[in-house]
Amino acid sequence: MALATLSLTQPAGGFTARIERFRRFIPPLVIVLLWQAGSSAGLIPPRSIASPATIIVTFWTLLASGELLQHLLVSLGRVSAGLAIGVTTGAALALVAGLSKRGEDLVDAIMQMLRTMPFLALVPLFILWFGIGETPKIALVALGSAFPIYLTLFAGIRGVDAKLVEAASVFGLSQRELIRQVILPGALPSALVGLRYSLGSAWLSLVIGEQINASSGIGYLVMTARDFLRTDIIFVGLIVYALLGLGADQLVRAIERSVLRWRPSFVKA
What we know:
Elements: H1 2-21, H2 26-40, H3 52-65, H4 67-99, H5 101-115, H6 119-130, H7 134-158, H8 162-170, H9 175-209, H10 218-227, H11 231-259
Helix pairs in contact: 3-11, 4-5, 4-7, 4-9, 4-10, 6-7, 7-9, 8-9, 9-11, 10-11
């Protein structure tokens, strides 16, 4: 009787677990259904906001024709180049500023001033300096992605427990070994959080960059759709940006789970 009762309760528990897993998707689904119902009833004008059904059809059409993939590859190339430059530069400057007081005096004030400058104000200067080709677009992405990694890695280095540093010095570690074996591993969690922010900033910077005399890219696709009042294409571009941002964030989360297995966490599942 006990075995029979256990076999009957297990499927119910598994079904409940699956319901709990997909519960977070219920509110977005309800919003989409209400959106479609309002569009079908004529309450939402298509010129202002295209219906979800129209957006899906447009997405499939652009994907099947290869146009969406072409623009996506161009945007990915720009983001990859700018992100590599920005993250490398930001991390290097954070190491200089975080590991010595003199380095902080040389670097930190300049970085704090630069990060408060609005991107739109820098666009005319970047056009004068770099022209209207690919360079200003990549430069904007690099600039936008450098500051998050700089701020978080700098804070992570300065936040390493002083007792750990003191204990490592007692055991006879050299300055280089101390940085490599104690300070950098201790700052790694903060650096990975900064990398997640840098990925998001890179895509936001690209939206601005692809308004500079662009002839391809997701941003160019969205701006062209704006001129022709194609809100369906605009939403396709926004959805692509959202999916790319989510995918990049999940990739960094996977890296975090892999390289930070040593760190205890109160979240077990």
